[in-house]
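Researcher: Going back to the complex we discussed earlier. I've cleaned up the inputs and rechecked each line, so this should be the final set. Can you rerun the prediction on the complete assembly and write out the structure?
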Amino acid sequence: MRTLLRFIQKYFNLLLFLILEAIAIFLIVRGSYYQQSRFVQMNRQITGFIYDRVDGTREYLSLKKVNRQLALENMQLRNRVEQLSGSLDTARVLRVHKEPYWYYYVPAKIVHNSVYKQYNYITIDKGKKDGVFRDMGVISDQGLVGIVLESSGNFSTVIPVINRDFRLSVKIKSNNYAGILFWEGDSPLYAGLSEIPFHVELTVGDTIVTSGYSAIFPDGIEVGQIASFSLESGNFYDIRVKLFTEYQSLFHINVIRNYRQDEQINLEQNARR
Amino acid sequence: MRMLTRNIIRFIVVVLVQVLVLDNIMLHGYLVPYFYLLFLLLMPFETPRWIQLLAGFLLGLSVDLFENTPGMHTAATVLVAYLRPYLLNLLAPRDGYEPETYPRIHYYGFSWFLKYTLALVVIHHFALFYLEVFQLRDFFSTLLRVFLSSILSTATIVLSQFFVFRE
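Model: Rerun complete. Updated structure for the full complex:
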């Protein structure tokens, strides 16, 4: 017993070091589970609050730019309304479903954002109280942003395209071939696109849009343009996509609520059984 | 006692400066100065080692919580806190460190402080960046990021000594 005590006394600092490192490594390895733990949920409320305060300043300083963006978006939407109201007159819409809409957009502000890490996350100022839940899509007026990972009462964490855990089914707009969008971890301006077979004809500048297969996004939301492609690995292209969303200057976003998401997922799960 | 309050205030200041100001500075998309290490660098020579380790742990954990990263900063700062006494021994002047002095430019000169900072910053960034990637596939691109970020962080820390944390 005494020898044990002496041993501990002698190597106390080393033991403490090893214990603390073990805790840190444990946190790293648990990774995504950690994101969901109650401790982090509570912490998100606190850090979210602090970021929210500080962001007031940033928001004020960028008012001019935001104004311009909103005015532009407004104009585009007005044009859409004009176009659509023409066709509304001729078509009679039958309401079969309980919910009036298929998709509903929740506007939100970004309170914290990172772009330079391998696993980037965005915190937004809308949470469960505003109807924002796990697995909802997030877009901006520029295009696709990411997917809601977890939400607390007033805040949510979004996993953006520029996170190495991100995967989404997307397609090439011109020919509807679908592939998987992922991030290679090098530049926040570019992402990778895989699983496009070699016989598809590609052109630099082709637009990539969401496929709508995942029930998270409606189809046709713009993601980016093909910046370059090569055919090194045999049957599939290695494609590099220039993203439309500029994560460094992102501020206002919309969360997409799909009222039929549960229905689609249930159906697909039942079919698989 | 005064030393303790001073260190607690410094802890809060460096964490807030890091997460609220410096995390928003990005050069070339993904270089960021990790200034918060300054807190560990400036701890008094005679601080018991277990306190240094616990302080390193808390420092990393606070930054992790703000940056939404699980444990990476914690692992890196605990490593730095553990190695710091050895490095101080290595860099000690011929007749040791004087009592009543602190590891600062003011006492031990610019080149000593630069060496001291650079060594710990490189250790920290090495651990942090490789834990972040968690694989050896991008070994060289990560290595490049380690060195570029180390230069940036060291410059930020050393410059801060001339402006804000002079006392």
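Model: Worth noting: Chain B touches chain A at residues 20, 23, 26, 29-32, 49-50, 53-54, 56-57, 60, 64-72, 74-75, 78-79, 82, 131-134, 138, 141 (CB under 8 Å).
Researcher: Good, that matches what I expected from the previous run.
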